[in-house]
Amino acid sequence: MENLTKELRSINNVSAQAAMDDLARALSGVGPALAFGPSTSHEVPASIAIVVATSGSTGAAKEVALSSRAIIASAKSSNDFLGARFGDTWSLLLPLTHIAGVNVLARSLGLGTAAIDLRNAVEFPKADFTAIVPTQLFRALNGDQLLLNHLRDCKAVLVGGAALTDELHSQAKDAGINIVTTYGMTETCGGCVYNGIPLDGVDVEIRDGYIAIKGAVLATTYLNNEIEWLESLQDGWFLTKDLGSFDSARRQ
Q: In this structure, what CATH number is given to the domain that contains residue 14?
């Protein structure tokens, strides 16, 4: 009988290259699933490639299980939106305990390159793309010249994880940084809406004032609370707890 579960292996304090190697095996199905961050599970359904712990907007701990299909779809649609080509590079400025950091590795795999690990860097070599949170952007614009130069040299810089203020966004543009704002969550493989535009394969609706998302990028379940996951779904749509509305004046 076919094995319906597989090992879930914790991956912590490793280099970006080692993590990429393990991720490539997990996505292809020849290696164990990977837990980025804490997990109470030791096995997962065979379809799961990675598990990322998140508190989300509610503060309750969740172990989000993501399939290879979701991770690969997210990485491809992100690279496609940005016009990334085979051989282009991503720099890693985010921890691998968050989906945004894992996504940098997945996008690099899709481009056939190694992620440039800058998590503890004192020098910042050039990269084509990177992903940061607003606090890092603030730091770059307020004294961290090396980081600022790195961001300027990138073709595009994804900013997500928290709301980006209009003021900071304007300052970044004035400084010569090509900002791409992102919206998403671990349950959607991270950012799935760029500059207010859903990525290819992603549908967004507003239901009773809240954002609902559908597409291949959706997670499979919460390992530690399947009931809550099922309660979050409605006809294949993931119902977030984020208020939202459609605005035709999208920032470019």
A: 3.40.50.12780
Whether residue 64 contacts residue 186, with contact meaning beta carbons closer than 8 Å, is answered with: yes
Q: How far is CA 27 from CA 105, 155, 205, in A?
A: 12, 27, 29
If you ran DSSP here, which 8-state letter would residue 104 be given?
H
Q: Going from the first residue of the chain to its last (252 residues), give the mean pLDDT of each consecutive group of 10, the final group possibly shorter.
A: 80 89 96 91 93 74 95 98 98 95 98 96 93 97 96 97 93 97 96 96 93 97 93 94 70 36
How many domains would you assign to the chain?
A: 1
Q: What is the spatial distance between Cα 97 and Cα 67, in angstroms, rounded to a whole number?
A: 17
Report yes or no on 67 lying in a domain: yes
Residues paired with residue 24 on neighbouring β-strands, in sequence order: none
Q: 45 Cβ partners below 8 Å, 6+ apart?
A: 4, 5, 6, 65, 220, 221
